Amino acid sequence: MMYLAYQTQSDLMDPLRFGAHMARRALDNSFLSLFSTESMRTGVRHLSAAFEMVERAGLSHARLPFGIASTMVGNQEVEVTEEPAHVLPFGTLLHFKKDTAVPQPRVLVVAPLSGHFATLLVGTVKTLLPDHDVYIT
């Protein structure tokens, strides 16, 4: 329920963020010269800053790839692919599938839900991959 509310709020804010973006672009420096007094120009700059804050209220960056192409299993280099093991609206459980027939113990790496992407744990995943079947939230 909480995730649905978060996603709904984010979706409903998209038009507002877009409108703020367009309004801020309309209030650029070339438009400021039309105002005769410094207090009017200051007011326009403050309004532009407020629009910028509304515009920045959304997610402004994309998830980086893990970028793990291979790992060593024993003395053999094996290919690693990222595969979604389970997909939900708010997140995806990723499996780092290795091209090996040797069964390994499964490990679930739980990334913190604090506004950071799981790719920040790429070092942990790289360390676990040679000896484990790794999944990450």
Unreliable runs, pLDDT <50, ≥5 residues? none
Distance between the termini: 19 Å
Global geometry: elongated
Query: What is the succession of H and E elements?
Result: HHHEEEEHE
Quaternary assembly: single chain
Helix run count? 4
Strand content: 15-25%
Q: Largest beta sheet, briefly? A: 5 strands, mixed
> Overall pLDDT, averaged?
85
Query: Helix/strand-derived class?
Result: alpha+beta
In total, how many domains does the architecture comprise?
2
Rg, rounded, reads 23 Å
Helix fraction bin: 25-40%
Widest β-sheet, arrangement of strands: 1-2-3-5-4
Q: Tally the beta strands.
A: 5
Structure description:
Strands 1-2-3-5-4 form a 5-stranded mixed sheet, with helices on one face. It contains 4 helices and 5 strands, in the order H-H-H-E-E-E-E-H-E. Helix content is 39%, strand content 24%. It is elongated, with a radius of gyration of 23 Å. The protein is of the alpha+beta class. It has 2 domains: 2-55; 70-136, no CATH class. The mean pLDDT is 85.
Topology:
Blueprint lengths: L1 H25 L2 H4 L5 H18 L14 E4 L2 E13 L2 E8 L7 E4 L12 H7 L4 E4 L1
Parallel strand pairs: 4-5
Antiparallel strand pairs: 1-2, 2-3, 3-5
Helix pairs in contact: 1-3
What characteristics describe this protein?
137 residues, alpha+beta, 2 domains, five-stranded mixed beta sheet, 4 helices, 5 strands, 39% helix
Question: What is shown here, in short?
Answer:
With 137 residues, the protein is of the alpha+beta class.
